[in-house]
Amino acid sequence: MTKRAAARQHKWKQWGKTLLLATLLPAGRAQAAPEITWYYFDVPPQYITAGPQKEKGFLDLALRNHIIAAMPQYRHKLVEAPFQRLELMLKSDPNTCVMGLFRKPEREQFMWFSRPFLAQFPPGILVRQSAREKVAPYLNERGKLSLRRLLEAGELKIGVGGTRSYGAVIDGLLKPHLGEANIYINSAANAASGLVQMAAIGRVDAVPGFPYEAQYLGMDVAKGGSALAYYPLAEQPDYLLGHAACAKSEFGKQVVKDIDDLLQQASVRNAIADYYASWLDDGTRKLEKELRKYTASPAASSPSPPP
């Protein structure tokens, strides 16, 4: 055998060993799985980032139990960020996703949205049980409270967070009345829990908020006070739909497709709805069952507020 032939044979043997090694290596060693960066925010009980119930928020459980656990084809990195930074991250990082955003036209310019996975009640008004008779004149025939009429009357003391947005509807209704004597503004870092405590002990009559805030924040701060009741608003739609959202990249588009494959299972959507319902009071929990039908259609969208 010539030296050239021997060298060729040695080369082919080495190439064969390399090929065999590549086929025997686990897929993760041969080529790392793509990584999703999941951003989450400290807004309990959606996400709970500290304390004895850490990672037990309803979005914590939805993400970890039904999305991450069911998508082993990706690596997953979880990063906490202020809610205000989420849109910036989704604009700048093509591998970024968030579980639990409302779909808005302005967000669709730079986000892909999954099918809806949760129908939830919009922000309303939390009133202590002993003050329910005070809001009775402002209820319509469906039992919804008119925040516009309540604010115009100026008879109840309303506590609001100075740096918090309650959404376009409530913010718009509150704006002309900020500074009036019956509007108490709390700008502290823990304003949400502080206002719930004030409502529970009668320092204010009502505070805006989601129904689950009364349960989560009221568990510890309402001792010696009164439990809070949630009133939906006449100015709000009946429900809002939560979605997973990913950056508007080819990667994000594929991730959303994979998430949709999971969310088409009614058992997954019902499990997530159960997590949400566990934070509602008994009366609101019964009403929540009626909302589940709105996530059955992959093309469903949140209704517009009433005129």
Automatic annotation (TrEMBL):
UniProt superkingdom: Bacteria
Gene3D superfamilies, per database record: Periplasmic binding protein-like II
InterPro entries: CHP02285
Swiss-Prot/TrEMBL keywords: Signal
Signal peptide: 1-32
UniProt KW Acyltransferase keyword: no
Protein name: TIGR02285 family protein
Species this protein is from: Pseudoduganella ginsengisoli
